[in-house]
Amino acid sequence: FRPMAVPTVLLTGFGPFRDFVVTPNPSWEAVKLLDKERISGAVIHSQKLDVEYQHVDKVVPALWNKLSPCLVIHVGVAGTSDCVRLEQCARNSGYRHADFANYVRPSGCCVDGGPRCLRTTLDVGDLQHKVQAEQGMRCELSSDAGRYVCDYTMYTSLHFALQQALPAPVLFVHVPPAGKPYSVAELADALRTIIRAALSQ
């Protein structure tokens, strides 16, 4: 008799870039607080990603293959935001800006020939309601993840799941800078609520 494997939630945050070199990136600061927690019967695997396109290309598919997650949530910081933003879709093209390693995508695309836009399969309106109701935090739905490494990461994950016919939903969450207005602990609480609600779907 072999015990059944515990379902895994892959939760990623980002390391340093731009305004978040001296000040820690709040996406990773919040995400790492949840590492190895159990939520609704699933265990959280927290992973830090570099703000680099080629790193994402290599590491994100490898994490899918290694963990076989039941849910994937990528978290990044939106430097000018003052609320939690749930991204509904990711774009394949328009990646013109250099990443933190000063690398620019030659084609400006995430996946050459890939679909123009990929959408999360989660009911993000339900997640928004839960964050507002349970945490009393401002939470908005977004259709533009920024055409930078955040958007790129969401597309990479969604495309990998699509190509491999994997059922696990993918979501990208943008958090505001720490203290503007929410603390890292409050952002972690919001992520717990989102994970719990997503798993219940």
Question: What is the fold's blueprint, element by element?
Answer:
Elements: E1 8-14, H1 26-33, E2 38-39, E3 42-49, H2 53-67, E4 71-77, E5 84-87, E6 89-91, E7 117-119, H3 124-135, E8 139-142, H4 149-163, E9 170-175, H5 184-200
Parallel strand pairs: 1-3, 1-4, 4-9, 5-8
Antiparallel strand pairs: 2-3, 5-9, 6-7
SS elements, strand count:
9
Number of domains: 1
Shape: globular
How far is it from the N-terminal to the C-terminal residue, by CA? 30 Å
Q: Percentage of helical residues?
A: 25-40%
Q: Any idea of the CATH topology? A: Aminopeptidase
Query: What's the mean pLDDT score?
Result: 95
How do the strands of the widest beta sheet line up side by side?
Answer: 2-3-1-4-9-5-8
**What is the CATH homology-level superfamily?**
Peptidase C15, pyroglutamyl peptidase I-like
Radius of gyration: 16 Å
Largest sheet: 7 strands, mixed
CATH structural class: Alpha Beta
What's the helix-strand series? Answer: EHEEHEEEEHEHEH
